[in-house]
């Protein structure tokens, strides 16, 4: 058994800045960043974290390195499935930034690799794991605090930030599409809040409403999900107004037969300062709950799961369900009619 | 032409307390309450408004009375269509509480009566006409303040208040079903915010999740609408937590390509006091707008429309579109799976 603090990680792909967050959190939790692979501008970002002497190594060198326990990937989303399969088949655990995969074929290849090995494949759904109000709302809903959960509403607006986006950001083949990519947070939260294991996609739409220069890119999407007696309506977009001081005014509203839980994820517009706002309304009244009394500890739990063989971070079947559900919603999505326009938003 | 202040109204049906609100607002606007018809307990409520000597008159006597200009109805919803047709065909204008009709046949009968007369049929969508923040948000969205409107989200939770509800409340044949009844506010707001005239119902669900003693009653419903390049997701329910100090924490969130408008209709939970909260976020920043600088003036406008022949209250085609749309959504609705339960909520 590996001693805690001796977990060695190889980072493959820092194309999304979440990769630095993932590696940084694991490093804080005692892991050693043993190697990384990154290309282009992402290298520079990696260097800042890993020190000026750190050098990108080939992917093969990392997956072949027997000293590495865990591969962390925030590569271009469409490459994450293949990276995961190679790592799993070479005896490594994998944690991917969301989305873990962008096609059903990739998901099935990961299924195969998992079946053939005793390694695990995790996906990081940061809107819950990095936000204690979201995590607490889902946990309370699941534990029956508001009766039977009958409705989940999720809003995931994101800043477009067109100037800082890499080329692959605009290509739905690379991102998997908006429901697979940022919609995976929504599916994660719906499944967590309801406990549903069998989910129907009742309706899904994706569209490009404000980026006419990149007509195939999807800047808005929504899906209506049904499972465990609850209906989930989830919208994601890249339409955060430029005057908002955070990347997105995310919301989660869970309705139960005996109360409601509302999360204002990153900001309470014109309200209280800070993020992670959680409001409960039930038979007793209306109140704010302080979700900040717990700590953001997913990386510690992930390290423990590897060291001790426990299952405290995120269950394998949940990861698979989220991935499969978003792929299904994306495939079912019809078109959001676009308004006329000539210039992309800033 | 009738002089303002001389409008005489006949109130037919006070089954819903909104009838008193309608009559009261019109009285404040200068109308004379000339007659009323009400049955059962609703009579008592009417007496309080109209004075101890007021007596209920038969419907025929009211629709035959040539001195009456306007029939106001908040009868059992399924009776409103017939009342409207009789009033229109007897030369009266009609204003109904929402929903104006509960079946397509009723709507077509009203179409016929309108085509054969020069009278008008209005429906009162109180969540907008009585709430200046909702009205202002819809108006600003329509005027382009937030760019092109691409998404409208409406939440209309209501207190169940089971103890005070009449028998017809529990019968979807009488109410038209939850999407026709309280969903009409949602359709009104979607059409106003977007300007859509041709709307598809993408998905609709209704169910009974918390009233097992009244299994055919619908205590939750939602619909996804598409029109004018925007998608609307609208949930209505009778699940307001009993600890909430208002009948419902209604919300309206309009997303445009350049900003968002958010209304907290009746309450800003754990936030500021009062109702009619309007928050705008756009390229300039985040701010509260004071919607209370205008007045709730729909009754004055309605009186003026009758006296002067103007069209300032609510256009006929809008009223018809809302009615037709909610009937269509209700007819298309699939079942919300109910959780197990044995007792109705309070």
Kindly describe this structure.
The structure is a homodimer of 346-residue chains. With 346 residues, chain A is of the alpha/beta class. The first copy, chain A, folds into two domains: 117 residues, 3-Layer(aba) Sandwich (Rossmann fold), CATH 3.40.50; 175 residues, Dihydrodipicolinate Reductase, domain 2. In chain A, 34% of the residues lie in helices and 24% in strands. In chain A, strands 13-12-11-10-6-9-8-7-14 form a nine-stranded mixed beta sheet, covered by helices on one side. Chain A starts with 7 loop residues before the first strand and ends in a 10-residue tail after the last strand. The relative contact order of chain A is 0.15. Chains A and B meet through strand 6, strand 7, strand 8, strand 9 and strand 10 of A and strand 6, strand 7, strand 8, strand 9 and strand 10 of B.
- Annotated CATH homologous superfamily of the largest domain in chain A: Dihydrodipicolinate Reductase, domain 2
Query: Which segments of chain A are poorly predicted (pLDDT under 50) over 5 or more consecutive residues?
Result: none
Sketch the topology of chain A as an H/E string, one letter per element: EHEHHEHEHEHHEHHHEEEEEEEHHE
Helix content of chain A: 25-40%
Describe the largest sheet of chain A: 9 strands, mixed
Radius of gyration of chain A, CA atoms, in whole angstroms: 20 Å
Widest sheet: strand ordering of chain A:
13-12-11-10-6-9-8-7-14
Number of domains of chain A: 2
Overall pLDDT level of chain A: 93
